[in-house]
Amino acid sequence: HTPIDGRPLRSFFGDSEWGDVTAFEGNANAIRILTHSFRGRFSGGFGLTYTTIASILKYPCESTAVDKGWKHRKKYGFFQSEKETVLEVMRGCNMIPEGEEPVIFRRHPFVYLVEAADDICYSIVDMEDAHRLGILSTETVRDAFLEVWDKTRPEGSDRTRDHYQSISDANEGIAFLRARVINGLVQACTGIFLDHRDAILAGTFNDTLLDHLQDATGCLSTVKDLSVKKIYRHDTVLQIELAGYNVMSELLGLLVPALLRERPTHKEGIILQLFPYQLTEFREAEGGYHKVLSALDFLSGMTDEYATEIYRRLKGISTPVHG
């Protein structure tokens, strides 16, 4: 990183703050969006209950406590800017503390249900999306979905196959199977939650409900294999991911020095003038950490199209047309 005002970039941040800004985490960002008092909006964020917030706190630890050997510490769950709010929530919900420096708690029981819903949806809906985009054939997705159904709800397999065969439209047929499979996985995960409720309530269940189901039945083997080999490694997916890295890193490279420098350069001054509303809040934030975090709020809230357009304009690839 190029020094700013003669200081290395790292010197603007504490250890936990540096972990936040160098390993940006979507889960922590969700907590920030829901609880932070943003400029021009209601104070206190969305005003959710403690239990609602606790139920989406998949990783109840800060960035310096990340340990991939534990499910609840595989990532971090909140930024330093929301640390006091999250501590209030975790203590208010009687979540079990595991460490103070750094902060680590065991999960709220509801997290396992929310996590299962999330895991089920993205693993199954990604398959349906890949079918609609022509990445996977109807036969491939059909067979993968039926494998899941057979291993989670075998008593209804024949009836499900008969109903599927009566649907002539390929997309509608796959949509029908998608709904059945999600229902089957939900029921199966519910059973696992109840079977392991004592460990879950004690915060010692070091697994996800869906992984536990997969280990027991192998129901998602084909879905996982196809997702890794055919969907996530598809050329279009990789090209979009690479473009995203380039766009975000370039925008950060332009915004961060402009915010941190005591006297911005002429170019940086122009950048600040281009985003007067957003960057006024950034400049008014106290300390380098809060300035950069506000810039990350701005960037993470952009749509792909908007971020790409801003990137093209700031890099001179396209210019606005007057008239």
Can you describe this structure in just a few lines?
This protein is mostly helical and 323 residues long.
Structural class, by secondary structure, is: mainly alpha
As a percent range, the share of strand residues is under 5%
Number of domains: 3
Q: What's the level 1 CATH class of the largest domain? A: Mainly Alpha
Compressed to H and E, one letter per element, the order equals HHHHEEHHHHHHHHHHHH
Query: CATH homologous superfamily of the largest domain?
Result: putative deoxyguanosinetriphosphate triphosphohydrolase like domain
> How many strands appear in the DSSP assignment?
2
Roughly what percent helix?
Answer: 55-70%
Instruction: Give the second-level CATH assignment, the architecture of the largest domain.
Output: Orthogonal Bundle
Main β sheet profile? 2 strands, antiparallel
Query: Which residues form runs of ≥5 with pLDDT under 50?
Result: none
CATH topology group of the largest domain: putative deoxyguanosinetriphosphate triphosphohydrolase fold
